[in-house]
Amino acid sequence: MTSVQTDPREEPPTGSSTGSDDGAPATDLAPTVVGGTRSAAHERMLELLLGARTLALGATANDRLWAWLGPALVTLVAGVLRLWNLGHPHELVFDETYYVKDSWTLLNLGYEGSWPDDPNAAFEAGQVDGYLPEASYVVHPQLGKWMIALGMAGPGAESSFGWRVSAAVVGTLAVFLLARVARRLFASTAMGVAAGALLAVDGEAIVLSRITLLDGFLMFWVLVAFWCILRDRDSSRRRLASKVADVLDSGGAIGRYGPRLGWRWWRFAAAVALGLACGTKWSGLYFLAALALLSVLWDATARRKVGVKRWWEDTFMVDAVPAALIMLPTALLTYLATWASWFASSEGYMRQWAATHPGEGVTWLPESLRSFWEYHVSMWTFHTGLSAEHPYASNPWGWPLQLRPTSFYFESFDDGSGTCGADRCVEAISAVGNPAVWWLGTVALLVTVWFLVRRFDWRASAVLVGLVAGWVPWLLTPDRTIFTFYSVVFVPWMVLALVYAMTLALEHTEGRATARRRVRWGIGIALALAGLAGAYFYPLWSGMQVSYEFWHQHMWLTSWI
C-alpha cells in the first residue's frame, strides 16, 4: 500500500479542526473500519477527501431531524415576511411596468405583446386585456417572465398579489435552499440554520421577493446550480475514494493518472439550472463560467490529494474536457428551451426576420435560428449601450456597503389623508440590505479572501465564487446604467461569507471552553442584530404607511434618500 503525499501548504493552522478536505495531511488520518462495511483504505480516502465533519453529518437522529426542521422554521419566517400584505401597493412599481405586462401577454399570446400609450392606470384598474397583437421589443429572455405569468394564471392580472406571488415563493424557497447549502458547505446544521435565518431577514432579498423583477428569479436559479455543484463535489469525491481504495486494496498503487468517475448527474443538473439562470437574465453566464471552473478546480485538488502524480493533466483530460462537453451544450439547449414559445409563435418579435431578410445574417443557420441570432445581436447591442441617466443608478464599488440602495416606491400623504397618526405620512419601499448582514458580511469577505490566499481553504473558494460571478463583472462596466438591487444575486454569498467567519471562529476555539463561549455569544449577538435590524427596517421594505419622521430616521446615510 502506498503513502499518499500532500502539499504542506494545504494544512490548516495549528490547533484548528476545519473539516476542510484540503486541510489535513493524509498521514494524520488513522485507518478505521466503520461497521465492517468499508475497508480501511476506503475510510481513509473518504476522510481525506471530504473531512471528518462532513462524514459525521446526519450521524445522529437529532442532527437528521434539525437538518430539515431548522431550515423549515426559518423558511416559515421568510414566507411570512414575503407574503404578508403582498398585494400592496396595488400599482406597478418600478420595472414591474415591463415585466408584469410582458408576462401577461406571454401567457395570452405566447410572446410579449405591445400596449397602447400610458397603459398602467387602466391595467391597475383591472382593464388588463388592452394589449395589442403586435410584438413588443424586449431585451431579456423569457423564463423569468413565464415564472411571473404562472403566478397570474390563477388570480389573473387584476390581482397585484398574483403579479408578485411567484417572486415571493421563489424568494422563500431560496431561504430553505441556502440553509441546506450552508449545512453542507460548513458541515454544520447550526450554521446552515444561521445562514437561512440571515437570508430570511435581509432587505434586498425581501424586497426582491415582494416586487416582481427578474433578479430574484436569477438569484434562485444560480443558488440551485451552486447546490448542485456542491452535491457533485461530494458525490464525485465519494466515488473517487471508492475507486482509489479498490486499487490500494488490490495491492496496486496510484500512478501518473487516476480513475475515471463516469457520468456525473449533479454536474449535469447544475448545467440545467445554469441554463435556466441564463434564460432569466444573461448575467447567468458569469455563474456558468465561474461554477464550471470552480468544479474543475475542486476535481484537481481531489486528484492531487489521492496521490495522482500528473494530477493537472489528469484533471484536464478526464474532468475539465468532459465538464465542458457536458455543461456548455446542456446549458445552451436548456436556454434554447426557455424560448420555446417564441419559436412556436409566428408573431414574436423578429420571429420572421430571416424570411424578410433573405441572404442576410448567419446564412448557414435554419431560418428560425437565424432570426433568433439576429434578435440576440440586437439585445446585446442594447445592453452594451445602455447609459441613460437615472437618479438611483449606483457605482458597483458601493454595493457591499449598500451605499446607494434603490428606492422602488415612495408615496407621501401631506393633506392629512394618511392613516399613520401624523400630519405627514409616507409609504416607501427601499431595497436597502440589512445593515447587519451586509456590513458585517463585508468584513467577513476580507477574512474569506485571507483564508483562501493563505490557507487554501476550499470553503473560501465556494464563498467567493458568488462574488466573482455576481459582482466583479459589474465593476468592469462603470459607464453602464446599473443599480444596487442587481446585487441581490449574490446576497446568498454575502450571507455565506458571514457564516464562514462564524464557523472559523468556532473551529479555532475548539477545546478552549472560555474562548468558545465568547465566540458563541458573539455569533448570537450578530444574529440578534440582524433580526433587530430586520424588524426595524421591515416597514420600509414592505410599504407600510409610517410617519415622515419615522421614514427619515431610517435614512442613516444621505445617499439612501
Low-confidence stretches: 1-36
DSSP helix fraction: 55-70%
Secondary structure class reads mainly alpha
Distance between the termini: 68 Å
Mean pLDDT: 90
- Secondary-structure element order, N to C: HHHHHHHHHHHHHHHHEEHHHHHEH
Strand content: under 5%
The description of the largest β-sheet is: 3 strands, antiparallel
Radius of gyration (Å): 26 Å
Membrane topology: Multi-pass membrane protein
Pathway: Protein modification; protein glycosylation
Enzyme class: transferase
Domain ArnT-like N-terminal: 73-328
Q: Topology of this structure?
A:
Layout: H1 40-50, H2 52-56, H3 61-83, H4 96-109, H5 120-124, H6 143-152, H7 160-186, H8 189-200, H9 203-210, H10 215-249, H11 265-278, H12 284-305, H13 311-337, H14 340-344, H15 353-356, H16 367-384, E1 406-413, E2 425-431, H17 435-455, H18 458-470, H19 472-475, H20 491-507, H21 513-542, E3 545-547, H22 548-553
Antiparallel strand pairs: 1-2, 2-3
Helix pairs in contact: 1-10, 3-7, 3-8, 3-9, 4-6, 6-7, 7-8, 7-9, 7-10, 8-20, 9-21, 10-11, 10-12, 11-12, 11-13, 12-13, 12-18, 17-18, 17-20, 17-21, 18-20
Describe this structure in words.
The chain has helices at 40-50, 52-56, 61-83, 96-109, 120-124, 143-152, 160-186, 189-200, 203-210, 215-249, 265-278, 284-305, 311-337, 340-344, 353-356, 367-384, 435-455, 458-470, 472-475, 491-507, 513-542, 548-553, and strands at 406-413, 425-431, 545-547. The chain is globular, with a radius of gyration of 26 Å. Helix 1 packs antiparallel against helix 10, helix 8 (189-200) packs antiparallel against helix 20 (491-507) and helix 10 runs antiparallel to helix 11 (265-278). It contains 22 helices and 3 strands. With 561 residues, it is mainly alpha-helical. The protein has a 3-stranded antiparallel β-sheet.
